[in-house]
Amino acid sequence: MRVQPAWWIGVTIYLIYNAIIFTVWAIGGVSYLNSVGSDVAFKSLILPFGLGAGFLVLTLSYLGWWSPVMTEERRGSPGWVLWVVLAFILAYILIFFAATNWHSLAAGHLMLLIAGGALVGFNEEVLTRGILVVGWRGSTPNEAWVWFWATLLFGLLHLPNAFFGLGLVDAAIQVVFTFLFGTGQYIIRRLCGTLLIPVAFHGAWNFVTDTVQASEAEQPAIGIYFADGTGLISILLVILVLLADRKARTKAA
After folding, report:
1. Nearest to 124 by CA among 175, 53, 177
2. How far apart (Å, rounded) are the C-alpha atoms in residues 237 and 190?
3. CB within 8 A of 93, min separation 6: which ones?
4. What does each C-alpha distance from 124 to 53, 94, 173, 178 come to in angstroms?
């Protein structure tokens, strides 16, 4: 690594990334409540998150953090935890996929949504489960703090949505939900050993959420239950992962 990891480096990158996304949104007059339509998807998804992806790629290349960001060196346990989290996320994705009115989405619109989901999945995982995790690990040996701060900042990443039409109360609820969802993504990184799997699942989650909205389909209630269940089960299971991590470190010492 060209630059030694530290928490403040990760937070600085986080703040710059946020500035890029929300400045583009402000200039383009983006509304969070209307961000996936065929007439707005480019300026609300492709342009800001494309610029954000470019910034993250250049930053990681300069820092020399690609390896620790994309590869998990502290493989977690117990292994069964991974399959529980993946089952909940996959169930949500399949349910929303089935609920989408695919015939109402033009090919060009669908391509924008695919690209948008991929960009969001890549950006937010690389930034929070990647750069922030690596940065905090450079400043503390306590993995519980690494999980907490990286995941809290992932949740707060969505707070500015309040100023783009979502409203403060709903944005605060979204922060809590994304903190819980981010915990599940942290578990996947720790137990899979790579960031690529969280990136893929995050991208797919955003994609099917957007296609249901863009196709004006009704959100399936059972899918919402699995979304909430993902967060609730993750916050319980991360305790097992962190306790196993502490036990392993104590034994090694």
Report:
1. 53
2. 12
3. 201, 204, 205, 208
4. 9, 22, 18, 11
Bridge partners, residue 194, by sequence: 71
CA angle 203, 71, 133 (to 5 degrees): 75
pLDDT in tens, 174-226: 999 999 999 999 999 999 999 999 999 999 999 999 999 999 999 999 998 99
Domain residues for 104?
7-252
Give SS3 for 186: helix
Looking at the structure of the chain, the number of domains it has is 1
Residue 1, domain member (yes or no): no
CA distance 40 to 139: 41
Contact assessment for residue 73 and residue 195, using Cβ atoms and an 8 Å cutoff: no
**CA distances for 99 relative to 16, 44, 109, 225, angstroms:** 36, 23, 17, 14
